[in-house]
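Q: My labmate handed me this sequence with no annotations at all. I'd like to see what the chain might look like in three dimensions before we decide whether it's worth expressing. Could you predict it?
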Amino acid sequence: MNPAETQPAETPSWTHDWSTLVKARLSLLVLATTLVGFLVAEPDRIDWPRLGWTLAGTFLSAAAAAALNQALERHHDAKMRRTANRPVASGRFSRTLAVIVGFVLGYAGCFMLAMRVNMLACGLSALTIVLYVAVYTPLKRVTTLNTVVGAVVGGIPPLIGWAAASGDLQRGAWVMAALLFTWQLPHFFALAWLHREDYERGGFRMLPSAPGGEGLAAQTSLLSSLLLVPIGLMGTLLGLAGMASAIACGLAALGLTWFAWLHFRRMDRPSARNLFLASLVYLPVVLIALSLDRGPLTGMASVRGGRTVLIDLPAAKP
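A: Here is what I predict for the chain of 318 residues:
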């Protein structure tokens, strides 16, 4: 036996424990998608105070969901190598503390959005917490369809950003939600493939771990990656973004599809890892493209503001 394996794991720092409790990296991803939803909804101007309140409230809500999730999954997380050292699973934080933190942060986030942004953004944020904690979390131990529910939850943050900026939800908001929903399928199926034995130890039902599920997960990853091509182009067709965005989104989706195809053909650990890494590259490329190239092409219609407006082509000079 390796002597290092007999030594207890090093106790993380206090700041690391709190960062893990609120899943800071995942919460920052939620912020990024919320931010892009806000920017795309209002391309001509940015209401900086409203944006600040939106991001602060959304972060608190995401952190609340993470803390409550770890309180509910304490015993299951303790059985998995990748989660056993989390503060609640390891016993460094009590379940009661995690629940209190979750409720306080959730109330603060929703209150902030209700008072400083609007009730639609607040309602969507509250819906995210409820779906993540009360639906997705228990379903992970019941059915492999939990990934679909988790993808629905992940598609809501851009809706929050859009609602915060415009006060309602137009077609463009749903296109962004569809993009986030679809992206999560190859992303999470690849992750579940890499850690399928660990998920089994924890009592979680993931599709790659189910009998015959590896092939179905690979097929779904391939089809959803391919579907990201037209969804990404819809942003330009609806007047949300320009041609540079269309090219970036299309090429990124084709690249992701290539790795999903390789995983479908091989269905081994290296191909799953490459697909997972490709999904990590895809999302920032698309989010940055939508943010920098937002606004309709000349001569195309915009769907913002609850109405369709045609942007006329400039007249040619004689």
